[in-house]
Amino acid sequence: MKRAKRILCFGDSNTYGYDYRTHDRYDAHTRWTGILADKLGDGYCVLECGKNNRTTVYNYGGDPAYNGSEILPTILKENYPVDYIVVMLGSNDCKTEFSATPEIVGMGLEIIVDLIKLFDNRTSVILVSPPLITGTILQDGNFSGSFGRSSISVSAALPAVIEKIAAVKDCRYLSCEGLVTTENADGLHLAPEGHRQLAEALEKLIRSAEAEPIQQV
């Protein structure tokens, strides 16, 4: 019997499914990971590995548990084999405490990709540039202390940076820019409609990838 294709979704609160209204978690059929699993159906296994506040390489609050590059090797081992990994990180790197430029955020993502390929070069990597941080966040008391106007500027530059990384590293690329918005939420997180739109776009990308695999070198 042919095994199911395993799709690991590695990201932050927008992969975890943070509900900006309740500060809890969207249910399995509202968050994009669950919708993606429903749409792909039999033959696919979607693995959810999202964590609030996760960064690419930073110890948020001094805690390495939030550092994506630190935890990723363990996650890859625990979930082996992984056919596809969807990486959507970078939003929390835009926090003012890190003072990261778009290029530095990109370097963090390159480390993430290199770790994946070092572990198993057969894993297909899908880089998703995260939803843009919008000005709405400056009015949200929950996040205005962590994100500022510089965060919005860095976030706006990430799609071009991440698209270039995807091309250089032989990854597939999907941009949330123009696809989903955080404007109708808190300026950082996706509303339910955004989760649905992201899942639909990823389903199309994965089915296309199945038809035309990237040749690894």
Give an overview in words.
It is globular and about 55 Å long. It starts with a strand and ends in a 6-residue tail after the last helix. A 5-stranded parallel beta sheet has the order 4-1-5-6-7, with helices on both faces. A two-stranded antiparallel sheet has the order 2-3. The relative contact order is 0.16. α2 (32-40) packs across α6 (192-211), α3 packs parallel to α4 (102-119) and α4 packs parallel to α5. The chain has one domain: SGNH hydrolase (Rossmann fold, 3-Layer(aba) Sandwich). The chain is built from 6 helices and 7 strands, in the order βαββαβαβαβαβα. Helices cover 38% and strands 15% of the residues. The chain has 217 residues and is α/β, with parallel strands linked by helices.
Quick rundown:
This protein is α/β, with parallel strands linked by helices. The protein has helices spanning 13-16, 32-40, 68-78, 102-119, 149-168, 192-211; strands at residues 5-11, 18-19, 24-25, 44-50, 84-88, 124-129, 172-175. The protein contains 6 helices and 7 strands, in the order E-H-E-E-H-E-H-E-H-E-H-E-H.
What is the tally of helical segments?
6
Spans of at least 5 consecutive residues whose pLDDT stays below 50 are none
**How would you describe the shape?**
globular
Radius of gyration: 16 Å
For the record, what is the CATH homologous superfamily label? SGNH hydrolase
Proportion of β residues? Answer: 15-25%
- The CATH topology comes to Rossmann fold
Count of β-strands: 7
Q: Please write the CATH class name.
A: Alpha Beta
First-last Cα distance: 29 Å
**How is the main sheet built?**
5 strands, parallel
Look at the structure and give the mean pLDDT: 95
Lateral arrangement of strands in the main beta sheet:
4-1-5-6-7
Instruction: Tell me the CATH architecture.
Output: 3-Layer(aba) Sandwich
**Coarse structural class:** alpha/beta
Query: What is the domain tally?
Result: 1
Helical content band: 25-40%
The sequence of SSEs as H and E is EHEEHEHEHEHEH
